[in-house]
Amino acid sequence: MDHGKGVELRDKSIRIGFSWDSEWVRETLDWPPTPANAKKAGKLVAQIRQAIKGGDFVYADFFPDSPRAKTQEGAIKTFGECCDEWLKTKGRLATKSITQYGNALKIWKEMFGNDTPISKITHTQIASKVGSTPWASSKLLNNYLITLRGVFKLARRDLKIDNPMEGVENSKFQKSPPDPLTRQEMDAVLKWMEHNIDDRVWAYFEFAFMTGMRPEEIIALKWADLDERDGSIRVQRARSAGEYTTLKTYQTRDVDLVSRALDAVKYMSRYTGNSEYIFQNPVTGKPWHDERSQRDHYWKPALKATKTRYRRAYHCRHTYATNALSNGVNPAYVSRQMGHANAKMLFTIYSKWIDGADRGREKAKMEAALLQTI
Fold it and tell me: Are residues 110 and 236 in the same domain?
């Protein structure tokens, strides 16, 4: 018989009923039909109806073994399934980026369980795992958190679950300031390359120092990008791990070439003038696959041979910027040359060299102003 409010006492169990998805459904509870259990069943029905009213009802949360739980869209989606679905939404990214995201998701699956219902993962669990894991670096953790936030953001939209990532913040870390080569160090490295290794490598690094372009942009340059009459080159693609991708800022730009940069390009014409791409790996005779070969096989030995303190090859870019700014070149111009999204980044990163370009004039103004107040 119906005990009221959707509760029916049976011979050896209790059956409850409620309206869901435009129909009256029933579920059997394996509880003895005692008055206490009947009252408990009534409370359960009230909870279910409240969840349905609020749009938060997930069938599997109340009746995980019910056939209806398996038919409710997304009701028993696992964490692994949601990870895979999110990764599919990133299909237009470069293969390298997708691989990196996939590696991060693999770590999260191991932590939270590939088959765990995503609705069961709580904020406390996530915060505990993130806080207790010995991450290799704060930057690595922050990169991994990008994927986890994406998974739960997508799941929240589809499944209408609470987002347990709310309140899980990035780990703070101190960014290293630019560490450019001095003019003397740059000249020493380039001179050693010119006399001790293949001149195609020298041309590549000469161009890098003279333009401040990103390595992935340089190795993707084509002869069709060069405007020799105007003395400029158009940057409109990048190359990473052998795959051509869009630029970091998604904006094509024209880079002015100083005479040394233009001479390095002209020098390469004897090797690649009849080819599509300007710069070439002397070992393979093909365009550079990425920046690894230049770094490991040529950059590191050059620094060691010239007794130059080690920096990443990427600091060719910083060297270009600081040389320009220290000599009073307009920061807005330098920012456009380097392909920054805006000049704000340049002022933030290179303020020390911008301030130094005044050769003490601004300090002298302050001295004069203070003396006048005495």
Answer: no
